[in-house]
Amino acid sequence: MKVICGLGNPGERYRLTRHNVGFRVVDLLADRWGLTGDGRVRDGAALLEALHPEPAGKVLLVKPMRYMNHSGGSLRAALSQTDVEVTSDLLVVADDIDLPLGRVRLRRSGSAGGHNGLRDIISSFGTSEFARLRIGIGRAGEAVDHVLATFKPDERELADEMVQVGADAAERWLRDGIDEAMNAFNGLDPAGPGG
Questions:
Q1: Residues with active-site annotation
Q2: Could you tell me the CATH superfamily of domain 2-185?
Q3: Contact (CB, 8 A) for 120 and 80
Q4: In which region does residue 177 sit, left (phi positive, over 0), alpha (psi from -120 to 50) or beta (all else)?
Q5: According to the model, what pLDDT value does residue 72 have?
Q6: N or C: fewer beta carbons within 10 Å in the chain?
Q7: Does the pTM of the predicted model rise above 0.85?
């Protein structure tokens, strides 16, 4: 089984904030795969299962339904009854204020990079050895205010495109693995010429 976990904050108030692009990528994947509803909630996480074409097979889409700083406990509990190997079977999708809006970056592993959701996952699992897909939201003003704000009207089209690219990257990870996904998507600039 493979797992794609999108990070965000639960509730309508946060739905379209910059911090919730991880949730939006998972929601788009669910739409693409014809999954309906919000999934079942177990151990503080919304879960949707899908059968993806080989080689991925069964895929679990996860959205921790506690606030961002507590993402790790929800994810760990949700995966406790599975045979998922975190170091090879998990992709975490999160926003990144250090990436410009419109950029995505995949990594095989790494630090939390100041992201509280990633920090809590690393703490909960005791390892930073899991794949992550960072979605650029840019940086402006105070970090907390910025990540909890919605995209400005002139940013929304690019933000929507970035969520699409994030979903494409997650599907590439499923199909071909992290190295192929990194080669295909790192450095891609939807905001650039022709993008």
A1: 19
A2: Peptidyl-tRNA hydrolase (3.40.50.1470)
A3: no
A4: left
A5: 94
A6: C
A7: yes
